[in-house]
Amino acid sequence: MVHWLELKDSVRDSRGRNTPMANNGTAYLLWFFSTFGICGIHRFYLGKPVSGILYFCTFGFLGIGQVVDLFLIPEMVDHKNLKQRLLYSSADVTTQPTIVRDVSTYTQTSPPLDVQF
């Protein structure tokens, strides 16, 4: 049985532990709790505790911040997931992308110019 707050994706850190990834559905569900006076709980979930406290104390900046967050949640979720991937992903060389550049195009010699005076 899957708990409603359990996250589907996770990143395995260097110690072998799974670090859960955030998702939009859970963030929007927590955002919805602002209608019951619990403003800012979605910001705690997305790793922004300072703004979460500000939202909680000011009722989401009198509701204006809550409405703005309705549109910002997908970007905040993507930012948190990217941060977790960068911080907790393993340093296994086989899974890291590599850039291969063909340097021969930069080192080609041109034919000598035949200059006559």
Tell me what you see in this structure.
- This protein is mainly alpha-helical and 117 residues long.
- Helices cover 45% and strands 5% of the residues.
- The chain has helices spanning 24-32, 41-45, 49-62, 64-88; strands at residues 10-12, 18-20.
- It has a two-stranded antiparallel ribbon.
- The protein starts with 9 loop residues before the first strand and ends in a 29-residue tail after the last helix.
- The relative contact order is 0.14.
- Residues 1-7 have low confidence and may be disordered.
Would you list the SSEs in sequence order as H and E?
Answer: EEHHHH
β content, as a range?
5-15%
Number of DSSP strands? 2
End-to-end separation: 88 Å
Helical amount among residues, as a percent range?
A: 40-55%
Strand order of the largest sheet: 1-2
What structural class is derived from the secondary structure elements?
Answer: mainly alpha
Model regions low in confidence, pLDDT < 50 over at least 5 residues: 1-7
The chain-level mean pLDDT equals 77
Topology overview:
Layout: E1 10-12, E2 18-20, H1 24-32, H2 41-45, H3 49-62, H4 64-88
Antiparallel strand pairs: 1-2
Helix pairs in contact: 1-4
Sum up the structure in keywords.
single chain; 117 residues; mainly alpha; 4 helices
